Automatic annotation (TrEMBL):
Residues 114-134 are annotated as: Disordered. InterPro entries: DUF2442. This is DUF2442 domain-containing protein. It comes from the Bacteria. Residues 114-123 have a biased composition (Low complexity).
Length: 134
């Protein structure tokens, strides 16, 4: 068992109190099926929204499942109990929608007809130009 000293406890309480005043905290969260966005209102009066298909664990969730979002603890997280998904509010604001491994595999994977057409045209010309030797 790890013992925590009084000094460590006081330092942790100080960090927690500072986080309460400096880090973004959610006061409400809801899913808007019309906009297809999770909308989060923050304690400081700001709000943000994100499309759930960008977030790990929410990619294939139904509107009914997405509507059951809860705020965790002091507002630092969002939870979808039935989906077993937890997301950090500060992380979402930083553009972190999943674990680092998941983000590496999925970030920037936007497909569109324009992107596909550009890739086909580039491939028809022989692909990416080679870097010139320096």
């Amino acid at each position: 068992m790890v013992e925590i000293t009084d000094a460590e406890m006081i330092a942790a309480q100080r960090r927690g109190a500072e986080a309460q005043h400096t880090e973004p905290r959610a006061i409400s969260a809801r899913y808007d099926p019309k906009l297809k966005r999770v909308i989060v209102k923050l304690l400081n009066g700001c709000a943000f929204a994100f499309p759930p298909h960008l977030a790990q664990g929410l990619e294939t969730a139904t509107d009914e499942q997405l509507a059951k979002v809860e705020i965790l603890g002091a507002g630092f997280g969002l939870r979808w109990e039935a989906l077993d998904v937890d997301l950090s509010v500060p992380g979402l604001l930083d553009g972190i929608f999943g674990t680092s491994r998941w983000m590496a595999a999925n970030a920037g994977r936007t497909t569109s007809e324009a992107k596909a057409a550009a890739a086909r045209a580039n491939g028809a010309r022989g692909g990416r130009p080679r870097k010139a030797a320096s």
